[in-house]
Amino acid sequence: MRCMDRTRAQRRLRELREEIAGHDHRYYVLTKPAISDAAYDRLYDELLRLEADFPDLVTPDSPSQRVGGAPIAGFGHVRHTLPMLSLEKARTDREFELFDARVRKALDGEPFEYHIEPKVDGVSLCLHYRDGELVLAATRGDGEVGDDITANVRTIRSVPLRLRMAKPPAFLEVRGEAYMDHAGFARANERLVAAGEEPFPNPRNATAGSLKQLDPRVVATRPLSAVFYAAGRTEGIRFATHAEALACFREAGLPTPSLTFVCGAFREALERCHEMKAREGELPYPIDGAVVKVNRLDQWERLGLKSKHPAYAIAYKPKEWLEQAETRIRDITVQVGRGGTLTPVAELEPVFLDGSTVSRATLHNADEIRRKDIRIGDAVVVEKAGMVIPAVVRPIPEKRSGAEKTFGMPDRCPACGGPVSRGQLASGAGEEVAVRCENLQCPAQKARRLEYFCQRAALDIEGVGGIVADKLTESGLVDDPFDLYRLKPVQLATLNLGTAEEPRVFGEKNAAKVVAALERSRTAPLSRWLFALGIPDIGEITAFELARLHDSVEAVAASAALRGIVRLYALRDEREQVNPRSRLRKPKDEAEKAAREARVTEIDAELSNLESALKAVRVVEIGPVGAAAVVSFFESSRGRAVVKTMKARGIRPSSETADGGLAAGPFAAKTFVLTGTLESMGRDEAKAEIRRRGGDVAGSVSRQTAGLIVGGDAGGTKSRAAEAMGVRVIPEAEFLAMLGRKPTPVTGPKQTELL
Ligand code: IVH
What we know:
Layout: H1 2-29, H2 37-53, E1 77-79, E2 89-90, H3 93-106, E3 114-120, E4 123-130, E5 133-139, E6 145-147, H4 150-154, E7 171-179, H5 182-194, H6 203-211, H7 216-219, E8 225-235, H8 242-251, E9 261-263, H9 266-278, E10 287-294, H10 297-303, E11 305-306, E12 309-310, E13 313-316, E14 324-336, E15 341-353, E16 356-362, H11 366-372, E17 379-383, E18 391-395, E19 420-424, E20 431-437, H12 443-454, H13 466-474, H14 489-493, H15 508-521, H16 526-532, H17 540-549, H18 553-557, H19 560-578, H20 590-617, H21 624-635, H22 637-648, E21 671-675, H23 683-692, E22 696-698, E23 705-710, H24 717-725, E24 729-731, H25 732-739
Parallel strand pairs: 2-13, 21-22, 21-23, 23-24
Antiparallel strand pairs: 1-6, 3-9, 3-10, 4-5, 4-7, 7-8, 10-13, 11-12, 14-15, 14-17, 15-16, 15-20, 17-18, 19-20
Helix pairs in contact: 1-2, 12-13, 16-17, 19-20, 19-21, 21-22
């Protein structure tokens, strides 16, 4: 009898678990409950009663087991199966277009689609399902190692404890975001306030704070939800497209983002992103952009990684989407930048804006303050302008009390007390708006150069931020960023970040982190190094283009391509000046006209050479200003010292060029012509190989042709033209050698790519 009961109980328990999980799914994921709360409670009570009678029949995936045991002392650490990466951002439509161009180029004409989905503004996490059962949940942490928050995540009712699949895969890792919707956030805060506790400033903090709770019973009272948008490591399941992965998640009972689109062209993708913003209100979670991913997963592998970000996706977050907030200016202080520029900064009453609390905003310069009539004490509108420091958009004059004060720029540097200057505008139209501290030894300038060098987008020396940079400079330990590599750990560990009266040392742990980061930075990607050097006009994008074209700092310093760009624009300018037909300056007589015409002919010849050489390296992002800035930096004494110091300190940035050096190599900046049939590869492959190495392919032989690559059964026309013009003829074997390949036997087995 007892045995019979047990069997029946087991069956009934299985039914109850499935039924309750099904109702949870309908309620929390589909938001379409099928039964009343009372009916649900009856099922739940029955489950609890039966489990109390048969405690050994309780399974970990039972709905009763969402809230586990007692509080824990701390979270365990989990190493992610694959790093949890972050996404590159597109701040403008143009940046999005550049991403699209990069994808198009990398896929070499192959058709592809985009998957557009919301960028959920929550707290990232990953879940592991083994044989369908939730076995682990972890935070993102530093992307490599996160915290084990399984007990807390189990309390989130929209997270299934078991996947709703007949045949679950052996292993499925899903990645997504935990969040609190607005109503839940308000409810959670009400409860906190009623309990005499501090409310959370915003839903994201509330989510992060809840997940960090050591007592899962507290977490269970917080209205958390989650949504999943990516697969991590999988075993026993494969997806062909991202859309398919999300559909599978959805089928398996995992919440996935709504408002997703699959589309082809860039224009449509852009429209869909805008549509997402317009329909943001339909989503239960806050979003801070749209994520655009290439849909096919085999194409992801071909696109690969772009330093820290996957190349198959981008987060579209244009400026117009940035949120604004209202606050008040308490004071206006003056900051000295790394180039000595004095920038007024508004010290604000802290306000929550676009995911974080801001208390400072840049005011750009004194002219702008005057133009916008911003006063100390004003109520103002602030927004995030794509930088770390937000900007003051405008004052709200209606809210003035009359006690507001106007601001004036100081005539001495607030950091070193040295004189400041206002540069004259080149046009002679008056003074430049920027005010500069002229003292190159100004400690504030040095500290800002150091901070710039260490920032995340540069060499990512975590820990060397504003105050640490200030103190390292003040103490005389670091005069130039390269001095960091000479510091002893103990010097860092004992660095006083406080005052003489109230010392606060940096500490051994932090010092060890900095030392490790410095060690890593020695082989950081070249683009980061080029950015970190703080060359005027060289931002991250140009630095990346430079690194794509050159394989070392020395190669950038000696670059023929950059000098070519400078020369190209100078020649175009000169042509405009001397051309007797241009309207700038009429020739005074026939002799001058003839001389100027002759010069135009010379210029045109040089221009055509330069243009074809530069077209071959396909310089897309480097203009004359950037190129000139780089050339003059490396010709300056500081630039030369940088190259020397890097060598002396054993710093060898890693190359980001395809095949190690587009600016060097036999194909760089040269145009080739193909004729006949190559035995080892098709024509398209040959073209791609040449282009990948910085060369180009043209249809017919000219004097600019660097070589004619001749395959079998080639007709004679191109070879004769090459001979007549003295163009080098390259047989296939030599071409292969130039590519760095061995000649392959014609009948050998075809190599297939193994993934
Ligand atoms: S894909 C590397 N998709 O935004 C690709 N991320 O910097 C993995 N995020 O840390 C992320 N919504 O936590 C992806 N639909 C979405 C997302 C999303 C929000 C978060 C993610 C990541 C950050 C991007």
